[in-house]
Specification:
7 strands, alpha/beta, two-stranded antiparallel ribbon, elongated, Nucleotidyltransferase, domain 5
Length: 176
């Protein structure tokens, strides 16, 4: 009779893989990932899309401001009215930047004459960087705390401080 070797008789118990340290490391990694994601802030600049219609625009008893800002590579032009007539141009300075403060001050003077107007048509035609477009939009949108206060009478006849310059920005050439 043949005997079975002793190594076959004694089977080694299967060792189980210890997953606890790996799970701890993954849990800590997820915890730090979630904690660091709260430091990331995404900013959004609101803008309206131009309205495309074949209908005749409604007649307004007063002439609309129809303020248009055309940004070219080396020049920014402000125009108003229908049809649009240019009234102010800003050249790029020797340092390569536009004078955003001057644009802002011209728009403040224009806002004083047109208190109810909030819309500006922004037409970036030239080769502009993203930072330049954002700086132009910032100069157009909001009044700074250091700017002279502008007041407008509300429906009750009480003077109310205006907080925004031309906050409704419409891009005119999205499809080009």
């Amino acid at each position: 009779m043949l005997k079975v070797p002793t190594s076959r008789k004694r089977r080694k118990p299967e060792e189980k893989l210890n997953l606890v340290p790996i799970m701890d490391a993954i849990f800590i990694f997820i915890f730090f990932l979630l904690m660091s994601s709260t430091f990331l802030r995404i900013y959004e600049i609101g803008s309206d899309v131009p309205i495309v219609s074949d209908a005749e625009p409604p007649k307004d008893p007063k002439d609309p401001l129809a303020l248009t800002l055309t940004a070219e590579t080396n020049e920014i032009t402000l125009a108003r009215g229908l049809p649009s007539k240019s009234f102010k141009k800003f050249q790029r300075q020797p340092n390569g930047e536009f004078n955003y403060e001057e644009i802002h001050s011209v728009l403040i003077d224009l806002k004083k004459d047109h208190l109810d107007e909030n819309t500006i048509i922004f037409e970036p035609v030239g080769d502009l960087t993203y930072d330049e477009i954002v700086k132009i939009m910032d100069a157009v949108r909001a009044l700074n705390k250091t700017d002279e206060a502008i007041f407008k009478k509300n429906k009750d006849g009480i003077d109310e401080k205006i907080k925004d310059l031309f906050s409704k920005i419409i891009f005119s050439n999205l499809m080009s």
